[in-house]
């Protein structure tokens, strides 16, 4: 049996002013943090680090990564809105579980959120 994953990573390297005006949520671009960006260096570092995480996942699953994920999760313990297609769910982000599912507290109950395309937004 072959297991496969599709991993997508989107990075804004630079954001044209015209495009930035049309975005209705907080955003950033790498050129805001550095004047010297080399797309090839960025891509190679991403590939190296992603490969290291994949090897780590093969060896021990998510168990070693969950605490680190939750430490850096900018939505943890904050009100969020989950958008999945036409459906919106409000709750409090509680991090991820050992399966990588988003933990969403809704009315005092933790629910797991899995999805092919889920948009996580802070509540405004």
Secondary structure layout plus pairing:
Layout: H1 17-20, H2 39-60, H3 66-72, E1 79-84, E2 87-96, E3 102-106, E4 109-113, E5 119-122
Antiparallel strand pairs: 1-2, 1-5, 2-3, 3-4
The topology string of helices and strands comes to HHHEEEEE
Mean pLDDT level = 84
Largest beta sheet: strand ordering: 4-3-2-1-5
Strand content: 15-25%
Low-confidence spans: pLDDT under 50, at least 5 residues?
none
Q: Which descriptor suits the 3D outline?
A: globular
> Number of DSSP strands?
5
Distance between the termini: 45 Å
Number of helices: 3
Rounded to the nearest angstrom, the radius of gyration is 17 Å
Helix amount: 25-40%
Structural class: alpha+beta
Largest sheet: 5 strands, antiparallel
